[in-house]
Every structure is written in C-alpha cells, then in structure tokens.
Design the sequence.
C-alpha cells in the first residue's frame, strides 16, 4: 500500500492495517522456515510496509 493511501486512513484503520501486515509477515516467515517460500523479497517488502504504516500511525497519534 502506498503512503498516500495510508495517510487517508484514520487511526483505527491504520492499526488494523499494521495488524494485518504483521500477520502476513508472520505467515511468510513460517513459509520460509518450512522452505515453501520461493520469493524472499516479499519478506523485505512486508517488513518495510509495516514500518511505513507504523510511522504514519505515530505521526497521526502525535498530531492529536
């Protein structure tokens, strides 16, 4: 998800997005551990997406 799309969400929406991304990242890590994951770049992209969402969430919470 792009930064502009994340900035349009409210705090509750961002928290839900972070939770969904963390769950997806966990599933990818489990696939890697069982050697079912073929594209390891998805781990990096989900990790960065989590960081991006958390950063915007912190900005919104600090603005309040």
Sequence:
């Amino acid at each position: 998800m792009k930064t502009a799309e994340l900035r349009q969400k409210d705090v509750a929406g961002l928290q839900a997005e972070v939770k969904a991304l963390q769950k997806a990242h966990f599933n990818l890590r489990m696939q890697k551990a069982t050697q079912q994951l073929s594209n390891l770049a998805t781990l990096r992209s989900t990790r960065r997406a989590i960081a991006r969402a958390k950063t915007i969430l912190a900005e919104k919470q600090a603005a309040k």
